[in-house]
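Provenance and format

Records in this collection were gathered into a single text stream. Each protein contributes a sequence line and a token line. The two records reproduced below are adjacent in the stream.
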Amino acid sequence: MENLISLVNKLQRACTALGDHGDQSALPTLWDSLPSIAVVGGQSSGKSSVLESIVGKDFLPRGSGIVTRRPLVLQLHKIDDGREYAEFLHLPRKRFTDFAAVRKEISDETDRETGRSKQISSVPIHLSIYSPNVVNLTMIDLPGLTKVAVEGQPDSIVQEIENMVRSFIEKPNCIILAISPANQDLATSDAIKISREVDPKGERTFGVLTKIDLMDKGTNAVDILEGKSYRLQFPWIGVVNRSQADINKSVDMIAARRREREYFANTPEYRHLAHRMGSEHMGKMLSKHLETVIKSRIPGLQSLINKTIIELETELSRLGKPIATDAGGKQHMVMEISRDFDQIFKEHLDGIRSGGEKIYNVFDNQLPAALKRLQFDRQLSMENVRKLITEADGYQPHLIAPEQGYRRLVESCIVTIRGPAEAAVDAVHVILKELVRKAISETMQLKQFPTLRVELSNAASESLDRLRDESKKSTLKLVDMECGYLTVDFFRKLPQEIDKGGNPTHSIFDRYNDSYLRRIGANVLSYVNMVCGGLRHSIPKSIVHLQVREAKRSLLDHFFAEIGTKQTQELSSLLNEDPAVMERRAALAKRLELYRSAQEDIGSVAWS
């Protein structure tokens, strides 16, 4: 069972080292969940003497006014033999064998945190004492409750101390050691008053009565010690501390314990209670009770720790990785985030994420519909056919078929296909830009770095603009190629016209009759429709090859090349994270370290 108290000791030290003091904060706190014994009492109640009596050493600062201004976490470790020594958490490699030096270090460490202004602080001091004369026990010595501020302290100090004490003892895992002097009315006891507020049924409170030997003659504390005056769930404990004269004479603590035992054994009023009186009994009883409480809390602690680890890991994942300090690390981080974005962009195109299907919609619906909407009526109207045919013949009429006229009519129709082809390129460009925007918003780490997000977005947009321009050139060339070279076989398969039409006695403008011109228009329309059918398939292939596939392959090539040339300062500007986010991440990382360590430690104890 002793390893249970050692476990809590270890966790408390880890809490303090990693900034978990149990105070109100935006971070989960393990400190508040650990069972502890808080020592509460008013000034001059004998609180310090009780603690020193349990330890068997003079080690606490003494003086007038408020001496304890920071919580002191006192961890006692029983050793089999050897010399007694003490260690502070803030001085991990230094052993104190002179307990007068321990007293001075407590005062000095208090001043380091609070200054010499007699202010108070909730940041605890951790002191471990190793001795064969102690029991395994951990207690938290809190500042003494007071009613009046001393010189050099604000009037608010009274309420501040009470608030601090209450913040410790109101937690359900806190065992309260309420110290009250027997030579004062129990109804005025500061310790009993504040303990009753947070523990009205007395289920967590141990009452300790000091200065029994200083009561007025003819009075005794039997009714209190027997629980008749004020009942608690646990029996009251009476102690007899050293007098001020004994302290001044440096009376040995072991001798003082012996005198305490003799006092209760030899005083008629207390003889029947002697077996559960004294500081030795109190230390053993508190140690046993603390072990029992810790054992009962282990399952709940494990559940809390596992749940909190998941919450901390989730938030850390959301906040992203910490920023590297060197140029290489920063460059690697920028590249890694950029690749994450690039991968998400590709997943949209490949159908793993939504959005890529809109490109197919351009090819399957928008482009065919645009081609169908092309009106060739103007190009193939009777007047235009006659005009182009006669103009193409020039001064000498064609002999068999108006070849140049055909070419001019075909070209005038095919050139209008440039519009739908260009529109298809632009439509795919708009979709790709939207997918870039989506991928940026879905790249979680980019939320950390607004400058990098903007730079990456600009680089991707510029790359898509270049790809669009290249795609547009090539796609329009497909249309131009259809104008530049006609499919001869189509025209060779047409029925040969025997009659040239028209009357040679008429003028050149009346050379062809309407029937012949209509037949020419119909042939041209049939050829243009054939060309539209071919371009309907070749335009998407060109766009996919030059825009979509190139975007997948080389969207960030220019950006990566530029990143390779940037200096540390330029890289730092890309990773200019919000300082509040950096602080939050660092705090969460420390707290996660604490909880993982606690998970491992508690797991090993629970298993054993």
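Adjacent record:
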Amino acid sequence: MSKDEYGVLLYYKFAFITDLNSLFSFYHSNCNSLGLLGRVRLSPNGVNVTVGGLLSALEKHIEAVKSNSLFQGTDFKLASSHHPLNDKVAVECGFTSLSIRVVKELVTFSSYPLLNPPEVSNAGRHLSAAEFHSVLQSARQLMKNGSPTDDKQLVLLDARNLYETRIGKFHAPSVETLDPGIRQYSDLPSWIDDNSELLRGKHVLMYCTGGIRCEMASAYIRSKGAGFENVFQLYGGIQRYLEQFPDGGFFRGKNFVFDHRISVGSSDTSIMGVCLICGSSYDNYSSRCRCTHCRILVLVCDSCQIKSDAYVCELCQKHRMDFGSIPSVEDGELATVLDKNDLKTVCSDSKISSQLPSRNGNAAPRKLRILCLHGFRQNASSFKGRSASLAKKLKSIAELVFIDAPHELPFIYQSCTEAKNSCAPPSGQHAPPPENCKRKYAWLVASDFGGKVEADWKIANQPFDPLQYQGQTDGFDVSLAYLKKMFSEQGPFDGILGFSQGAAMAALLCAQGDKLKGEIDLRFVILCSGFALPLADFGQKPINCPSLHIFGSDPGKDRQITSHTSRYLASRFEDGCSVIIEHEFGHIIPTRSPYMDNIKDFLRRFL
């Protein structure tokens, strides 16, 4: 390699970093002085770097990094390449500028808080490219010889995304290969959880592009305990393997990379990918075609790009996504080209955004659908009004759906004339007809609630009691059946947002665990001014559901639900499974910064 050539450098290092500011300053100074462009990600747990520049500059950068003992043992992957053009690919991959950021995670392993986050120190054993190849070679040889072995207990696990595995993957005839088929890396923990029996008791060989994703994923598998100890990972990833075996070895196709090169192949020029539309051999992502629904990269050949610019990926086809008739590619047969206008016509379901994104990538992915449960003696209309600012600020990522609770309450008023929060009749005047006032509802009611709504106004039995919610413990079964019906008729929903008593109801649903699987499936809950009720459904077992708890700080201004009450509810959820936002306001959901930013950060994990 000539030092005047252009090159790309990739490396990562997991290590405890005490002074991020100094490290940030080093990268800013060093990369700018050497003219390096690309991405540098720093976190308290390490660094992840992909930069490009002249090979001579990259080598100087490596020497400067090596002088820091923090990077002892780091694998620097340096490769020559063509100079990035100032085109769509280079811009999208971040190779037209230098981006240095401090992040929470080097790679986002999960879109929700994990019950037991993996420790990188527990990662699988590293296998060099030669060792990895030898294991696969031995398995094939034993199979050829017909020797009785336990090699059928060996499985290959690809830790990459579907669009990467489309164009290349390992193939060993005698070894089972597991391709999770995920949209993004943060979906991998869920796949591992759902398919753990495929890994239990096996020798798992993992691989990814450069190795960093296997560090977290292998540690997560090993954290499952007995039966998951034997996890190994390809050190340096596919990149190091292809350097060691330039003919491709057991790897078929091309290695997808996250820089302007797009993909890197071996001397074997065989094409693994196929066009999404016509099924012809194709593996070029340079056009950056994307699924019009979820925005994942798709392979569309030049001819089919001329015919249509609206595409639906395999995953959206598999889950149907309410697109009606979707073209598919099966057994290499040609599929009908879906015209963009046809796609707009069949996508009439209200659950899908009406404006489909065009191929230029300006549109957002599917919004989250959140079912909103109002508080006691409220209704969907009033809660929607009170949450208008929240809905407006979340409109780009979430759709809020409001429903009335099933228990209709009688109209009541206090005996004094100062009652403000109702249509209560002023002293000496007749009450307005009930039909002129909006009905109020509840998810849970007092034990003496008769269930029959009074035809006229009813005077309250006693002055307002801020602790009345503690006695409202009946009616759960009715509300549960009602919510099952709502999920069936209006769902699916990604999560629930509950306010006050609505939050208590949502927490009770979470406490049901797997009992509601298939009827009420929740990815998360948002509990605002929530409280826990002393019902058997809570039990003693911690609740395992990603949750965001929003309540007033102590001392706060929430006169209905105290901060320690909401904090206790948060404690009922598993450690590492809940996020808490405390604010200085009253019985409300705050929508100003920084609270709104924190709410968005939580929700973006599930996009």
